[in-house]
Amino acid sequence: MPEAEAIKSNVPEFSVSELAFSLKRTLEEQYARIRVRGELSRIKIHTSGHLYTDLKDADAVINAVCWKGTVSKLSVKPEEGLEVICTGRISTYPARSNYQLIIESMELAGEGALLKMLEQRRKKLAAEGLFDPARKKPLPFLPEIIGVVTSPTGAVIRDILHRLEDRFPRHVLVWPVLVQGPGAAEQIATAIDGFQNFSPRPDLLIVARGGGSLEDLMAFNEEIVVRAAANSKIPLISAVGHETDTTLIDHAADLRAPTPTGAAEMAVPVRAQLQAQIMDDGQRLYSGLTRLASELQHKLEAKSRGLGDPTRLLEVKTQRLDHAADKLPRLFTFLDHTQKIFDRWSEHLAALAPKLTRDWEKRVDYAGKMLEAYSFENVLQRGFAVVRDDKGRVITDAANTNAGQTIELQFKDKKFVSAEVRKK
Q1: Which residues touch 380 (CB under 8 Å, ≥6 apart)?
Q2: Is 237 a domain residue?
Q3: Is the domain of 149 the same as that of 58?
Q4: Are 227 and 130 in contact (CB under 8 A)?
Q5: Domain-located, residue 341
Q6: What is the DSSP string of 90-134?
């Protein structure tokens, strides 16, 4: 047997599938549990629910897969460009001869990566106008009902209730939620939305939790919570963490409180101070009215001195009235005398009227007889006629007629006869 054939017979022979699955087993045994740090790239959620992405750094890229059941349990929402540490195992995809990381858990690669992600999210939400100051609603001066979204256990709710009791007791409705961990963001958003249609509806909302690490406060940085706060029709105070802590809900809230206790102080005034203010305002109002009344009294007295004594003015009017009353009898005497004169004139006119009317009757009768005597109708009775043209005008001279002209003749019986003028 030649030497080359002897060497070939010692080399193991695999089919493509055998080699692919052999490599798969080797990689899975060698890298059964590893942590890989890198930047997420080309994120794709398949219709099946599985996540496909790449992890990359400056020099290399590795494919990564996260199965549907694991995606919903991830503590970090995969986002493009986010630097993370993925825990899982290395396997291969024999159909393409690719090796890949099967992701079982995911966490942010340090606080710097988390802050970078939050800054990108803040810019995105700000660009949508969710943090616009014009959206901010004023807080009610004295709310009747206050809704609180927080954990039902712990110091936060006790601090809020005690502070409200000290300042101005109000009716408080508590919506219990998780404030960190899986499902916390969904519960917080549901509580904010639920209060919008709650009966009785709160006049003010407080979303609160105590201090914690950046990771502990992540629920209040989730988009679902920020959008719920921005869309709240009820004025909302954000009181998350300590004074130095800042979350994205702070930007969307109508007002940010440095602490949960501070939120209670912003929510209501101090009743004792209001009572003292009311007493002081009442005293100042009374003093002001007293001074005003005194000033008006002095002005009235000054004006009354300029007017003089009203009784003296009445004395003059009274005297004039007496003088007028003295003249009334003389006036009545004059009127009586005048009435007698009118009566005598009436008697004279009554006696003279028959004489005046009798003479005028005679004159009227005489004028009537004269008119009748000179009437042309009497002339017609003696056989004469009146000649008129076709327009009814009297013709007194034959020279005023023309041949062929139509004329009218009126006789004593007042009948009109038409004729035609003939001239030679």
Answers
A1: 386, 410, 411, 412
A2: yes
A3: no
A4: yes
A5: no
A6: EEEETTTTEEEEEEEEEEESSHHHHHHHHHHHHHHHHHTTTT-GG
Pseudo-torsion of CA 175, 180, 181, 183, nearest 10°?
Answer: 30
Q: Is the same domain home to 72 and 186?
A: no
User: What sign does the dihedral 207-210-214-216 (CA atoms) show?
Assistant: negative
- Gap between the Cα atoms of 208 and 243, Å rounded: 12
Measured distance CA(328)–CA(338) in Å, rounded: 15
Judge contact between 418 and 407, C-beta under 8 A: yes
Q: Domain boundary residue among 222, 246, 268?
A: 268
DSSP label of 394: B
Residues 75, 149 within the same domain: no
- pLDDT at position 310 is 67
Burial classification of residue 51, based on how many CB atoms lie within 10 Å of its CB (0-12 exposed, 13-18 middle, 19 or more buried)? buried
- One-letter amino acid for residue 154 of the chain: G
162 and 250 part of one domain: yes
State the residue range of the domain holding 198: 144-268
Q: Provide the number of structural domains found in the chain.
A: 3
DSSP string computed for 327-374 = HHHHHHHHHHHHHHHHHHHHHHHHHHHHHHHHHHHHHHHHHHHHHHHT
The two beta strands, 34-45 and 51-56, are antiparallel
Please choose, from the candidates 181, 51, 145, the residue with its C-alpha nearest in 3D space to the C-alpha of residue 103: 51
Q: How far is CA 165 from CA 173, 268, 353, in A?
A: 14, 10, 112
Residue 94 lies in a domain: yes
SS3 388: strand
Q: Indicate if the alpha-carbon torsion angle 273, 275, 279, 284 is positive or negative.
A: positive
Asked, for residue 264, whether it belongs to a domain, the answer is: yes
Q: Which two tokens stand for residue 72?
A: 């919903």
Omega within 30 of 0 (cis) for the link into 78: no
The pLDDT of residue 192:
97
Please answer whether residues 86 and 33 qualify as being in contact, where contact means their C-beta atoms are separated by less than 8 angstroms: no
Residue with tokens 């921005």: 230
Residues 96, 211 within the same domain: no
Q: What is the pLDDT of residues 62-72, one digit of tens each?
A: 999 999 999 98
Residues of the chain with pLDDT under 70: 1-9, 111, 307-313, 353, 355-360, 373-374, 376, 414-417, 419, 421, 423-424
**CB atoms closer than 10 angstroms to residue 75:** 12
